[in-house]
Design brief:
Layout (H helix, E strand, L loop, with lengths): L2 H15 L1 H11 L13 H14 L4 H28 L3 H6 L1 H11 L7 E8 L2 E8 L5 H14 L4 E9 L4 E9 L1
Antiparallel strand pairs: 1-2, 2-4, 3-4
Bound molecules: protoporphyrin IX containing FE.
Length: 180
């Protein structure tokens, strides 16, 4: 994954738990202490960070991923990707429906990006089903946090539930989303 992801993890831990905690986590996970956003790092390093954070902060790995997902939306907004997010939609529904276009735009500057894929179905008033497909395993809880972050972005209350994991290739996770 691009270093931007590990950098977000580093920033989140440093801001909330201090530099010493971050240094300990990076050492235990066997990663660098700082990352170059546009450089590639093995996915295993990101997974190792999640595992060590979960041990050090006594949080379930799913809770770590969910917290990180929510932070990701704020973080990327502050790292210069706000305008791309603005172009993606003016409300939760449109934004979620256009996530693949958004990652395609990002790929123009990050050619090695392996983005996930999202699809909206059962699109009703204030309710929808979101499908998340990824070659990466285990990230389903992150999407719950991302949905919270997207809700905050639009000042909209979002309630999301992970309703199904389909053992397909790529992984296919299904969420029920209500927004008002
Ligand atoms: C403009 C802001 C954003 C940027 C710059 C961005 C960029 C990235 C990058 C660099 C990765 C790592 C993948 C790789 O390096 O190959 C990633 C992964 C991911 N992104 Fe985005 N992203 C943004 C916003 C979002 C939003 C708003 C969502 C969903 C609501 C989202 C969903 C995901 C998910 C679930 C992954 C995990 C990777 C996977 O499943 O394979 N991203 N994104």
């Amino acid at each position: 994954m691009y270093g931007l992801v590990n950098k977000a993890v580093c920033d989140f831990i440093t801001a909330n738990f201090g530099e010493e905690t971050w240094e300990k986590i990076a050492e235990k996970a066997g990663t660098d202490e700082s990352f170059i956003s546009m450089e590639q790092y093995p996915d295993d390093e990101t997974y190792a960070l999640v595992k060590v954070i979960s041990e050090e902060l006594k949080m379930e790995p799913a809770a770590v991923l969910e917290t990180f997902g929510e932070f990701w939306v704020t973080f990327t907004g502050q790292e210069g990707y706000g305008p791309i997010m603005k172009m993606t939609g003016n409300n939760v529904r449109d934004f979620l429906a256009n996530l693949d276009d958004m990652h395609s735009r990002i790929k123009a500057n990050m050619p090695e990006l392996q983005p996930p894929s999202f699809e909206v179905t059962d699109d009703k008033d204030g309710e929808l089903t979101l499908h998340y497909k990824s070659n990466r395993a285990g990230l389903a809880p992150m999407v719950l946090g991302l949905l919270k972050g997207v809700g905050k972005l639009f000042n909209t209350e979002v309630q999301a539930k992970h309703v199904e994991t389909r053992s397909e290739n790529p992984w296919h996770e299904v969420y029920h989303v209500k927004y008002s």
